[in-house]
UniProtKB/TrEMBL annotation:
Region (Disordered): 31-56
Keywords of the record: Membrane, Transmembrane, Transmembrane helix
Transmembrane annotation, as ranges: 6-23
Name recorded for this polypeptide: Uncharacterized protein
Feature: compositional bias, Basic residues: 45-56
Length: 56
């Protein structure tokens, strides 16, 4: 059956897309954490307060 190969290929594509998206998000999160760690503490607190306001 040839359609089985097509199904397997589609599943592989979907899995690859999901994994790459997860990895990209993890990298972005790590970079954001690094950026925040390099900021002085006061501006970090200001940014946290702004984020809290945005969420609320």
């Amino acid at each position: 059956m040839q359609w089985q190969g097509v199904v397997v290929a589609l599943v592989c594509l979907v899995v690859t897309a999901l994994v790459s998206r997860y990895v990209r998000r993890a990298i972005e999160r790590r970079q954001a954490r690094k950026r925040q760690a390099s900021l002085p503490a006061a501006s970090r607190q200001v940014r946290r307060a702004a984020e809290r306001k945005r969420k609320a």
